[in-house]
Specification:
This protein is α+β, with helices and mostly antiparallel strands and 143 residues long. It has one domain: Trna Endonuclease, Chain: A, domain 1. It has a five-stranded mixed β-sheet. Strand 4 and strand 5 form a beta hairpin.
């Protein structure tokens, strides 16, 4: 008797271009980003990008554990690296990650939700270091 292991939250592993994705949602985001690369809006598309948190200035150790985001690519319109995450089920760990990203993330994070083939960018998270405060209000800096 053989057992087929069911994914914890019903995600179906998918392979595209010889690359394995843990869910159809993440595979759909990969296809969307590939189209942007083909159009010239993005370049240098990378998968499963490790992001190291900043180091503590006094002890020179990382302030948190490294994390992986689904994708990163250089956006030719805004001239900076943008990070992309396909999000299905939101766990407590995700909320902690978003909080950390808002404080110390390395750049803009775009979060996509939806169904395979019907993705929507539901949130853009800009870290605080890319904000300026004017009269008590925080505004994103234009790069």
């Amino acid at each position: 008797m053989s057992f087929i292991r069911q994914a914890k939250y019903g995600a179906k592993r998918t392979t595209i271009d010889g690359k394995a994705f843990p869910s159809q949602l993440e595979a759909s985001l990969y296809l969307l980003l590939k189209q942007y690369v083909a159009l010239g809006a993005l370049r240098d598309l990378r998968l499963q990008v490790r992001v190291d948190p900043p180091k503590c200035p006094t002890c020179q150790r990382h302030t948190a554990s490294p994390v992986k985001v689904d994708f990163s690519a250089y956006d030719t319109e805004i001239h900076e690296t943008v990070y992309y995450e396909a999000k299905g089920v939101e766990l407590r760990r995700w909320k902690e990650f978003v909080k950390w990203w808002r404080e110390d993330g390395p750049g803009l994070l775009r979060v996509y939700k939806g169904r395979p083939g019907r993705l929507i960018c539901v949130e853009e998270i800009t870290p605080k270091k890319y904000h300026v405060t004017i009269k008590g209000e925080s505004w994103p800096l234009k790069q």
